[in-house]
Amino acid sequence: MADVVRGTLLSCMDEATLQYVVYLNSTGLQGADGKPEKFILREIDATHLFVKEDFVSEILEKMDEFSDSNAFTLSTNADGGTVKRRKAT
Fold first, then answer.
1. Which of 40, 65, 82, 88 could serve as a FRET partner for 58 with CA atoms 20 to 30 Å apart?
2. CATH number for 38
3. Domain-located, residue 29
4. What is the pLDDT along the chain (89 residues), one digit of tens a residue?
5. Cα gap 33→18, rounded to integer Å
6. Are 50 and 10 in contact (CB under 8 A)?
7. How far apart are alpha carbons 77 and 82 in whole angstroms?
8. Which pLDDT score, from 0 to 100, does residue 85 have?
């Protein structure tokens, strides 16, 4: 008898984003039983993955956290020049 797992197509903006999701998969995300669980069912191409449906919200949350931690803001200093500053976390 075949096992059936519900999945969702996850489209990433670029290959680097997909590689971050692959990294998350290698470390495992917390499953329903509280244990780390892998969630990628199939890598389709350089920007698309088929993932377990139950993990989509957690994957998106982790991607937002990663994106926010790598964001920079531009500020204007006293002489009118711009200065890059790392976003405060």
1. 88
2. 3.30.70.1220
3. yes
4. 788 889 999 999 889 899 999 999 999 888 778 888 999 999 999 999 999 999 999 999 999 998 888 777 766 666 666 655 555 55
5. 26
6. yes
7. 6
8. 59
What does the block give as tokens for 2? 């075949």
| Sheet with 7-11: strands ordered across | 7-11, 48-52, 40-45
Task: Check: CB of residue 84 under 8 Å from CB of residue 64.
Answer: no
The confidence score (pLDDT) of residue 81 equals: 63
* Domain housing 21: 7-86
Strands (E), 1-89: 7-11, 29-30, 36-37, 40-45, 48-52, 72-76, 82-86
> Within a domain: residue 2?
no
